[in-house]
Amino acid sequence: xxxxxxALRAPLVALWVLCGLxxxxxxxxxxxxxxRLALKKHWSRVLLFLCGxxxxxxxxxxxxxxxxxxxxxxSWLDIFVLNVVRPTAFVxxxxxRHWPLIGWLAAGADTIFIERGYRHAVQRVGQAMKLRxxxxxxxxxxxxxTTSDGFDVLSFYGNLFEPSRTPGVVVQPVALRYYHHKQxxxxxxxxxxxxxIANLWRVLGxxxxxxxxxxxxxxxxxxxxKPPRAELAKLTRHAIRETVLVKRPLPPVDENxxxxxxxxx
Length: 265
Prior knowledge:
Blueprint: H1 2-26, H2 28-51, E1 53-59, E2 67-71, H3 77-83, E3 88-93, H4 102-108, E4 112-114, H5 121-134, E5 138-141, E6 170-180, E7 183-184, H6 196-204, E8 209-215, H7 229-244, E9 258-260
């Protein structure tokens, strides 16, 4: 069954990735900023459908204006899962830039890459984040700096919360909970020394993968004086961790909240 599913899905996913690369290279230059955001949202929705991944929303995502989404990091899927809610410019480690296909897509889709260990890396990324905020965009940040199995939340790095202290920016924690056949699971987690190909083999070769996005109340509003970055990191981690630690089964599907579904049902 796994081999059959993988054989069916993998070519479709590869073709869709190729379409994405062609869209970035040939279409983005003509459609303007709003058009690029709409295409990114649609492309992510179709990708998740082809992968057989269902996404559901709990809570109220900030829908307009500049916002920092601070998110726990579980999988390469996280980026596309959040894009179906609102197109997002993510801060990601520079190594992703060199991943086959996905790295090229990320680079063309407004990802902000950070080269950890370089003296001025945080400053350059902070400037890039501020530019997105000035445009009223969403910036996605994985403050753990790496992925986990999704059952707990690692320590947060606070440096990249500094740009969000700019007036006019909302800071909203987002908790991701992954499920496999309606039970909390690390099945889709991309952790440790696992290769992307091995993770794709597992994800594309199964059914029943779901991701619940829990949009928690903002810890800092656009028009409020914001606490120091270390405090912002502490507040967001606490809110996300409290939600991630709840190991309940997948709640009943509300069709008004489901944002994308694949063949996983």
